[in-house]
Structures are given as structure tokens and as C-alpha cells.
Amino acid sequence: MRTIEVNLYTFEELSDEAKEKALDKLRHINIDYDWWEGVYMHAENVGIKIKHFDTGRPWSIGIELQDSACEVARKIIAEHGKACGTYKTAEKFLADWAELVKQYSDGINTEIVAEDNEYEFDNEADELEKEFRRDIGHEYLTILQKEEEYLSSDEAVKETILANEYEFNEEGEM
Cβ neighbours of residue 67 under 8 Å, at least 6 residues apart? Predict the structure, then answer.
């Protein structure tokens, strides 16, 4: 039997070159699990089910609205901040929806579609809802992409290293 002595260092004690090596080796430490679950739950709170996504090339996302598009948009307005892209998308959709209803109303009660105009309204409303699903899906895909970028950033990886008190050899190997 032989005993080998190894000097171990905290991340802060490493040279700049060894720190870079450690960060690169651990780049995916924060995304080796279901890191997207928080975003999925966030979406479900407003009536959106994210079925799948891919932030690679090409970007893609599959979503399903659990409620009507108007109800989902209202929930987003109630729960998201005004600076959020989802809020802006929901606000635009609701304004466009109100304008569409007004356009197909009888001119007196502008909040209800006139019976004679229901067919034309339905066709345009379907297209408006389709655009909303596409746009809100894109907003959630952007949220997922930004979260993934942050979790892989030097800042986030360093936070994980420090929080877990990882130790390294002189070259930055764990």
C-alpha cells in the first residue's frame, strides 16, 4: 500500500488559468437535471402546458393552452410584470380581440359579436388565437433559452462551485 498526498484548493485559491479550466469542465453542472421545470410550472400557472422545447438549432417549442386564449391572456396580465414579453404579447392579443369583437358587433353593443357576423368572426378569431399561441410560445422559448444561458454562465457555475465548496487540484481538476 502506498499513500499519496494531494494538495487541494478552493476555487478562489486557484490561478486564473485553473479557474477557467474548472469553469469549463463544470459548464453544464447546473443543467444536468430538469432545470426547466420552474418555467414549466410558471407557464402552467397561467394555463399553458409546455409539451416540449429545443433551444438548439432550430429553436422549437410545443405548447397547449389549457384555457381559452382570452383566459390565458387575462391570467398573464394578472400575474406577469408589464416589462415581461409575455405580458406585452397578452396585452396586444386582448386589445386585438376586443377590436375584432367590436368590428363584428351590431354597432350598439360593441362587446358582443352580432349573430349574423359569427361565421366571419370565428374565422378571424381562430387566426388571432393561432398567432397568440405562436407568439406566447416564442416568449416562453426565449425565457427557457435565457435560463439555460444563465445556468451555463461563468457566474452561475461559480456560484454552484462556491455553494458546494468543491475542491480542486492545482490544475483546476475536481
Answer: 47, 75
